[in-house]
Amino acid sequence: MKDNGGLLIVLSGPSGAGKGTLCKELLHRQNSVKFSVSATTRAPRPGEVNGLSYYFRTQEEFQSMIENHELLEWAEFCGNYYGTPLFAVQKHLEAGYDVILEIDIQGALQVKKRFPQGVFIFIMPPSLNILSERIRGRGTECEEDIQQRLAKAEQEMKYIPEYDYLIENDDIIDGVDKLRSIIIAEKCRVKRKQCM
Amino acid sequence: MKDNGGLLIVLSGPSGAGKGTLCKELLHRQNSVKFSVSATTRAPRPGEVNGLSYYFRTQEEFQSMIENHELLEWAEFCGNYYGTPLFAVQKHLEAGYDVILEIDIQGALQVKKRFPQGVFIFIMPPSLNILSERIRGRGTECEEDIQQRLAKAEQEMKYIPEYDYLIENDDIIDGVDKLRSIIIAEKCRVKRKQCM
Question: How large is the ipTM?
Answer without folding.
Answer: 0.83
